[in-house]
Design a protein that fits this description.
The structure is a homodimer.
Chain A: H1 5-20, H2 28-35, H3 39-51, E1 55-58, E2 64-67, H4 76-84, H5 110-127, H6 131-137
Antiparallel strand pairs in A: 1-2
Helix pairs in contact in A: 1-2, 1-3, 1-4, 2-3, 4-5
The structure holds a DNA duplex.
DNA sequence: AGCAATTATTACCAATCCGTAAAGTATTAT
DNA sequence: ATAATACTTTACGGATTGGTAATAATTGCT
């Protein structure tokens, strides 16, 4: 269970555009330089975001990318699923690897209960956060503020791992 | 961001052993048959679980696998990280793909704030659930009980996607 | 018209993951 | 002892992902 590279870097590129706002524009090379990515890679990421409808592109000499909607109206679930697909493969049981015709735990399966519940929970967390929330969470450069309030709605010490080999 | 096959099937195998309890035992072929997996694949999964210390193995004609600790004392975070590694690659910024010496957002990075916060949140959810919780959530075969209370501590309708292309 | 700057598309290669295959090692029943 | 049963290890091929490279297509400027 990992956050993929596409998801992280794609989110970064989208945030860069979000900072420019609906009227702003950035070229691929601008995004690449700002985010420390290669131009071809930034191009690939922005291309995916465009196909998913999160950004718009204009070609030609004065072209560039613009965020498609207001940052307040784009939630993180959209972004993550656009870049990395759904949390749980919907036709998981069809692709089941075993020799049985179908998943042994087809219905009333506690494993699916758990995993679906987890996926739903994560989705809900992502859905309730927008790009603007993330931007607001970005502290001023040089400010002493540390730590983030994002995604920490009730648990008080989420990164406390107690040596449980999260490594 | 996906729940990997190893994570799901490894969890299934571990649950099968958990049902037998600390005194019970299962051979690879038993596990494979019960979970609908090929024998070599079940072997691989159990081997990983053994190396991670979650199950013990005895060789020889009367050999088999036994769960290493009580199901109440094994939480899902252990299982998931044992099978799929940590949620966020700890040396992510070292492997950074860009041309810059280090991650442009090294410190005070809102993207890291968000992702770390999310990872921490998920970890916390997983840590507070044990294998025994999952076993208790498994309904009797044929019982009319549907739905799970696991991992749904406060959100009421986590799998409600509202057409937001979770697909 | 032609050049320059920009996005769009396709293909490609390396690395990792999924699942299988096969040969090896240990233990026990007979 | 020997054979049967079971775990152990290594290796392999296919599929997916990460990132790069090259070329085509579009627009604006002169």
């Amino acid at each position: 269970m990992r956050i993929s590279a596409l998801e992280e870097y794609g989110l970064r590129c989208l945030l860069a555009l979000a900072r420019r706002g609906r009227e702003g524009q950035m070229s691929i090379s601008e995004v690449a330089e700002q985010e420390g990515l290669s131009v071809p890679y930034a191009s690939k990421l922005l291309s995916i975001l465009r196909k998913e409808g999160l950004v718009t592109a204009e070609r030609g000499r004065t072209g560039g990318f613009t965020i498609a909607r207001a940052p307040e109206s784009i939630n993180l679930l959209e972004v993550i699923t656009a870049l990395g697909g759904p949390l749980i493969d919907p036709n998981h049981c069809e692709k089941f690897t075993g020799q049985l015709d179908r998943c042994v735990h087809e219905d009333q399966c506690s494993v699916h209960n758990v995993l679906d519940g987890l996926a739903g929970f994560i989705s809900e967390q992502l859905r309730t956060r927008t790009l603007q929330d993330v931007l607001d969470d970005q502290p001023e450069i040089g400010s002493g503020l540390s730590g983030s309030s994002i995604l920490l709605t009730e648990q008080s010490e989420p990164q406390e791992t107690r040596g449980e080999n999260l490594q």
